[in-house]
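Q: Could you fold this chain for me?
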Amino acid sequence: MRIQRAVDLRPESITFKSPQKTADNNYRSATCLEDGSMVILQMPPMKLDAYNLDPDSGRLFVDFKLTNNELYQVLRRVDSHTIQTVFNNRMSWFSVGDVSMASVEDSYSSPIIKGADAPLVRFRPNAVETAFFVNKSLSDAQCMEGCPMATAIVQLRGLTLFKDSMSPEWVLHSLKVTKATTTEQFEFSEL
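A: Sure. Below is the predicted structure, expressed as structure tokens.
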């Protein structure tokens, strides 16, 4: 398994496989790099903005402020590449040739969302069971509270195609948070 720095990613090296029907009647297009390896990236340190790690309260997520312009540009290029790939493959993927680029763009849900003072990027943990570690097990609230910075390992697993929308599957695998004097690491799952 190869992990590369996010800012070194060449979005055009990402390939999408033909979508396959999932158990919930959606379609999923898996991704890999040109060499067949998984798209796994180490993010630079980012400010934590918001998170929900309680599986009973709804969808799990961790939001980071995108203050690193280089990372922001890479993620925007991944979005553009994904949209262009869907548009280029519309005939073979959907058997429909009259889908416009504007329709594809309108149906795409970017992980980049609007924030109060900077754009945010949202990643989702890939498991309901979350283990936090610092010499002993901690709760997510203990670990995240007061932690202003984090470095994440994320994977672009694919693209989920719903009836009228599509969303990239950016999965958060591990997160290293930094407090004023200590660093804790916790993992969401095995890669």
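A (continued): The first strand starts at residue 4 and ends at 5.
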